[in-house]
Amino acid sequence: MNTFSEWINGSNRSTGLEEKCEEALGQCLLSATKLALAGIADQDKNCVKFMEDLVPEAFRKLQCSHPVNNWGFEIQSGVFEMVELLIDLIAARLSYSPVPVKLLETLSIVFDYDSVFQRKNKTKPYDRSLYDKQLDDRILANPPSTSTFSVYNRNETYGWLCQIINRFILKDGIINLKAQFQNKKQLTALEYNALLSTFINCMDYIFIDKYRQLFSEHIEQALDYIKNLKEQDFKAKSTNSVFELLSTLRKICSAVWPNRIEQIEQLHLNLLLKMIALSNFNAKMNSLKELAKIIENATSNIPSMTKASIRRDVISEWIIENSILSKALEGNIDQNQYVEKVRTLMDFIAPKISKQDIETIWKMQHGRSLVAVDHLFTLIASAAAKFNLQQLNYLIEFICNSWKTETILIQEKLIELLGTIGRECQKDSAVRVLEILWDLAHSDRLSRSMLDHILHYHLRIFSEGRSPYDALKRDYCLKCMSDLQRKQGWLVPAIKHLYDLLHHDSTNTFKRTDEDLISLLVHKHDLISALIQSLSTCQLNVWNKTHGHVTIDTLVDGRFTHEESIKNHLDLLSFLLKKGNLYLILKRSEELWDTLITSEHVSLFDHELGLNWFITCSEDLNRESQIALFEKRVSKLNPIHLTSKGYACFKLYFERCNSERSSQSRNFTCHTNVSTSAYNEMLEYRGVDELWNIILCVGDDEIANDATRFLLDLYYLKQPNRTRRLTPQLLHGHFLKEVYKRLSYLLITAVPPSTSLTKEIESFYKSLKTYGEQLTTTITTTTTTTACHTSTSIETNHTLWLQKIERLLLIIEEYIHIVENEYSPTAHITSFYGLEYQIKIILGEIGKTNSSYDIVTVHSNDTLQMLRICLGQFYKVSSHDIHISIQNTRPLTQSYDHVGTNNNNNTVPLSSSSNNQSNSNVLSSSLNSKYLYQLHITPGTTIYIKILGSTYNQPIKPNNSEPIRIKLNNSSMLTLTSNNNNMNTNDDITRLTPSNMMADNSKIYDILYKLSYLNNKNIHKRIRNLLNLMPSDIRIHDYLDLISIRAANICTTERRQSTENANNNNNNNNNQINSRQAIDYVFDIKNSSLI
C-alpha cells in the first residue's frame, strides 16, 4: 500500500512502471476486490483510503496524462490489465450500499472513449471470444460496424473499451448498479449523477436499445427527484450536484431520448427560476453561477459546447418572460462575486432589454448603499455598451433626470457611468454620450471639480487607436474654438479642453491626422490670434474685477485661477507651434509680448510667465522674427526693474541675434591689415548698449554680476586667441572707448542730491561736468551721441547715478583683472608694502602638531612668489623646490580690495582655472602672482613647507627651541621677482595692457581723484582698487620729488617732462613751484571734505 502511494505521489516516468503496477497496484486491487465481495471493504480504513483517494488519482494518471502516449506496448498492456482489475473491484463494490461515488467517477473516466489511453489504443481489436458467448443477449458494448466508419477512421474499433464495458456486465456490474437505485435510503443528487454518468462518455459504443431498457425507469426516478426538491434543498451548498445531474440527464437524452431534451431543459430553467426567486443568498448565487455557465456554453464558439447547451434564443426568451434580471438585481449586489455573475446575465440580455426594464433597473439604486450603487452602475455600463441607440437614449433620459436632483457624490458617479459607456459602446452611441457630457459641462453654476470631472471623462472617450473617432475629435476641437471666439463664459475651459484633446495620446510620432487638425485650427480658424485675444480679454477682465490687485489665486470665471488661465493659454500656444511645426509670426509675437510684458494691465506674475514663455519657446520664432522682436521689444525692457527672468530672456535673444558674430570674428582675424574703424565695427553687437544699461541700472546685484561677466566675455574672453594676441591695442582701445563715453556722459549729467544744495556742492558737480566734457574730446562725437541717446531714456536720480558710477568702475576693474591675469608689474600696488604682519612656518606635512616653527615677517602686498623666494634663500634651495601648503577652506578672493581680508561684496566672481586650484590645500606655482592677502595668509597663519628634490643645509631644530625670525627683503624680492618673470615694465607688451593704456590718459586719474570726494563707500572701494591696478600717477611722483630730500640737489632737467605739463596752467616756469605748493597740490587740504 505504501509503495503504491509513493508511486501515485511521484512522477509518471515509464521506468519501473510495469513492475510497480504488478507489485503495488495489482495487489491492492485484488485485495480490495476480495473485501468488496465479502461486503466488508468499507470496514477497513486502508481499503477505504485506497478506493476513494488512491484509485481515482492513479487511474486519472494512467488514463488521462500525456506521458501515456510515450509508453510501449508492454506497459500499455499492463495498464489494461490494471483497468480490468479495477472493473472487477467496482462491480463487486456496487453490491452493497452506500453508492461508491468516487469509484463510479473513476469508472466514467475509464469508459471515456476520448481519454488519452483509449485514443492511444483505439485500434486495438475486440476479442469476441472473451465475453460474447458468456453474455449472449446481455452484451452491451460492440464496436461499430465498418459501414459506419469513414475511410479515415476504419481502424478505430476501440476494442479494449468494448471489452472492459462487457467485462463490467459479466462481473454483474450492471445488476449491482441498478440495485443501488432500489436503496431504501433516498439517494442524493450526487449519487444519482454518479450512477447515471457511468456510460455517458461511451454512448457511441453501446447498444442504445438495451441501455434504454436498463435505465429508463432510473431516468424517471432521477427526474422525479429533481421535481420534488424543496426550498431548503436550494439553500444547501450541494445544489451544484443537482445541476450536474441535469447536465448528465441532458447528455443521456440527447443520445437515447432526443424528444425529451426540451423537457430536461425546461426542468433546468424552472429549477433556476425557483432558486433565483428566493431571498437566500446561496440560492441566488448558485442559480446565477449555473445561469452564467449556461450562457457561456450557449455563446461559445466551440461547437461541442454549444450542442450540449440550451439554445441562446430559448435562454433569452426565458430570462425576459420571467424577469430574471430584476430578480437577480434584488439580491446582494454588494458582493463582487455576485455582481460578476449578474454582469454575465446583463451583457447577454442587453440587446433585448426594454424601456420598462431599463427604468426598473435604474430605480433599483434608490435606498441602496454607495457600494451597491457603484456595482449597479458598473452593471448598467457593461450592458449599455451593447445597447442600440434607442435603448441608450432611454438610459440617458433617466441619467439626466437623476442629475438634476441627486447629490454631488451621485452626480460624479453618473458622469463616470456616462464616461464608461462612451468608452465601451459603438461609435453612434459614443456620439450621443459625448453630446450629453458636453451639454453638462456647459451647465450654469457648475463647480470647478465637477467641470474637471466631466471633461476628464469626455476626453477619455477619445482613446488611442480608435481612428473612427478622429472626426469626432475634430468636431469638438471646433466647438472649443467657437467657445473661444465668443470671448465670454467658457473661455478657459475651452482652451484647456482643446489642449487636452490635441495633446491626448500624442506621442513623439505625431499622427498625420493631428497635424492636419492643428493646421486647420491655425490657418483656417486663426486659433493663435484668438488665443492671444482671449489672453488679453482674461487679463483685462481680472484687472478690472480686482481694481489692479491681481494675484495668482484670483478667480477668472469663478472656477479657474488667473495663474491657470495664463498657463493654459501659453501651453496651448506652445503645443500648437511645436506639434504643428509652425513658426510664430512677428506680428503675433509682438501682440503676445505687449499683452504679457508691456501692457498697463499686466501683473508681475503675467510678466514672469510671459518672459518664461519667450525663453522656452524661442525656437518657435524664426531668426528674422527673433532679431526684430529683440530690437523692438526685448531690448526695451526697463533695466532698473529687470528681474532674473527678464535678464535671461534678454541674454538669450541677444545671443540669438548675434550668433553670426563669432564666425565673422574668426574670419576677420585672418586679415590683419584692416582699419581700426572696420575692426571696431566687427566688435559691435546688436543690443550691446542695452546690456551696458542693464549692468549700470539694474537693482539686483546678482543680475549685474552675471551681466558683467557676459559683457567681458563679449569684449575679451570670447574673442579669438589670435585677436587677443595680435591686436590687443585695438581690442582694449575699443573697450576703453566704450567705457569713456559712458563715464563722460555720467559726469556731464551728474545728478546732485535732492537736498538743499550749497555752493560747494554746486561747484563740485559743475567740475564733474567739466571733467566729462574734457573726457568727451578723446572720443568721437557720434559715439557720445549714441551713448547719450541710450541713457536718456532712463530717468536717473542721485542714488541711481551713484550706482552707475560704481558699476562702471567695477566693469573697468574686472576687465583689467581678467586681461592682466590679476597681476601686473606696473600696478601701483607693487610700489608699497602694505600691512606688515607675522606668519608661522612649519617644516613638515600639513597638520603636523607639536612641531618647532619659525616666524616670517611679511606684508599684505607681498606675493606668494616673493615668499617662496625668501624661503628658498633661507633654506638655501631653489624657490621651485619650496612646496607650500595651508589649512584653508575659504575660496580665494578675486578682488583687489586691500583692507586686510577681502570685504568687497560687489566683486564679480569670475571663473578661471586658478580659482579652482585655490580651494585646495596646496599653493601651487600657478598662484605665485597672488598677493598674500588674496590667499588668506593673514596675521598668525600657519603654513607648512616641504622641500622637494634635494636636502637643505639647515640643522634639525629641537621642538622646544626658539623660533627663528625671518624677514623678507622687499627690494631684493622685487628685483628677483622681476628677473624671474622676465618682464620689463617698459616693454611693448606691458604698455599695451588696459591699465597702462588708461594711465596714458591723465584725465582718468583726475576723474578718479574727483570722484573720491563723493561720500560713497562702494565708489571709494572701486577707486582704490583701480588705483592699485593702474600704474602710479607719474605726476604724484614728480610732486613728491619736490618735497623730498633729493629736491634740493637735483637739477631741473632731471625732472620728468610730465611735471612741466602739469604745471603749465599755473606758471610757465616750473622752478617757481616750491615744496609748500607741491604739498597743497598732492593733499589738497583745503578741499578734503566729502561731498
UniProtKB/TrEMBL annotation:
Biased composition (Polar residues): 895-909
Keyword Hydrolase: yes
Pfam families in alphabetical order: ARM_UBP24_USP9X-Y
EC number: 3.4.19.12
GO molecular function annotation: cysteine-type deubiquitinase activity
Domain of life: Eukaryota
Residue span, UBP34/UBP24/USP9X/USP9Y-like ARM repeat region domain: 263-658
Catalysed reactions, as listed in the record: Thiol-dependent hydrolysis of ester, thioester, amide, peptide and isopeptide bonds formed by the C-terminal Gly of ubiquitin (a 76-residue protein attached to proteins as an intracellular targeting signal)
Biased composition (Low complexity): 910-921
Protein's UniProt name: ubiquitinyl hydrolase 1
